[in-house]
Design a protein that fits this description.
elongated, Serine Threonine Protein Phosphatase 5, Tetratricopeptide repeat, mainly alpha, 2 domains
Length: 207
Amino acid sequence: MLKHLRAVQEGDDSSGCARVVDAMEYANMRSAPLLRAMVARSERKTVIATTLVEADERAFQKLSPIRQIDLINLRTAFYIEALTWAIDCDFSDGFTFLLPKIPKAEFSFRSNIDGDTIYHVAATATSNEYLKTLLQTLASREGPDGKALNSPNAKKETPLDIAIECGSEGKVTLLMLHGVKPTRAQILKAKEKGFELSEELFAELTN
């Protein structure tokens, strides 16, 4: 891929640029199963994710600014996809490495190929730490986008819906403390799940 990008960069052929975009699109979609398989292996190492990302960054830097504009969306989509795989596979080192690679603004509207935002994926994780880290990191920059935290996925579920369905009081509390207000239906669902969150907290956040 790097050789191909260099070859196209040397010329001024607009069709060549289109071919690069197509190639990156192909790589983005076809590499998903491979990367998922690698990070799920018991012998996984951070070096796997590091090598892939650094190779992508070297290729990207070889492009002119106009070519970078052509490819930036695909590149960001790949990073977000990889970050969701790291959460799915409980690959905390990979998650820590990838998170700073993604601009904060991208978390407000981008989703993975399954239609989930990074918050939806973090809400399904066994550990609360991924969601906690996301909320704290983004809050330290400018604050998580309220719309993103309340946005539904392809199944019409919000991160709070998922956290409640998974029975995770910790994640529900984290989301509420960062401004997510539960609906009456969500409160009832939480009670059905046996949550012990205080009535005062619910009352304060739903008023």
